[in-house]
Amino acid sequence: MKSKKQLKKQMENKTVLIWKMGIASALSWEIAKLAGSNHPYLAPISVILCLQTTIDRSIRFSYHRMAGTVIGIIVVVLLEPFLKVNGWTIGGLILIGCFIAKWLKREESAIHQAALTVLLVFVLGHKSGDYPIDRFRDTLIGAIAAVIIQMIIHPPNYSQHALKKSIEYSTVMTKSFTNIAQWIDGGIARTEETEIQNLLKKLEQELQLCKFVLKDAKESLKYNFFAQKSQSKLKESEQRIKMLSEGLLYLKHVVDTYMAWSKTGTITTKERTACANQLTTLAPFFSREKDDKLQGNLLTISIPKELEKQQYLIALYHQTSLLIEKIKKEV
Fold it and tell me: What are phi and psi of 188, to 5 degrees?
């Protein structure tokens, strides 16, 4: 469930988007009229389509829209004199335009724009000879207006949201280390194994969400000339999420190792406690505020002296055996 603060922020973003759409549409229409267009509505259409969630995405969509528009216009202008308007000719031209866009390795959005341009230019071009020119010019005007408005009016900035999500996940990760430590120390019952696996899956899902938010934050700062101070927040979020990823990977290894060890019936109470203590020692490291004392020796578990030389081979053997077990389940 989203908090009231999150819902309020979403509503604010939608309000800003509506204002941008209205202002940019009005400006693009008037500019298109001044440029001599007989189809000024094409400029606001571009504005509406090109206003994406970030400046970077707006620029990329505008580029693909222009690429598709140019391809569509060229196809129609070259072949229109030899064709009549009907379903078969429209379908054929769309195929040609789209395959040219594909051959030029354009994005899927450019293929859609090529198809749309072919349809409208071919059909409306018969009724209005200046439509192809208007289509190109007004599309360009609308795309530029959308990007400029996106840049200067409350440009999107998701760095604070990314930092907040990483901090929230830090709290969850710290609690997970502590909870799993308690489970191990108490001896995990078979009925609890599913619960722990579900916890790890949930942690994985939440981590993916953090990475998705971080990706959005990176894109929001690209071409955002008013967000230089936000780079430090973005860097902090990136470092935190990287460390949390390592923490989750470690937790998965510990749980797999403990469960496999527990099934052999050879693990002792002392060894369980040592494993639990190690997790408890590491838990604060993933919290929002790290204690300086954590920079000391974090490794509390140990192995017999005679096994120190074989520790890496043993670790490799164990991880390989776990992988083979998973492969067998899938076959």
Answer: -70, 125
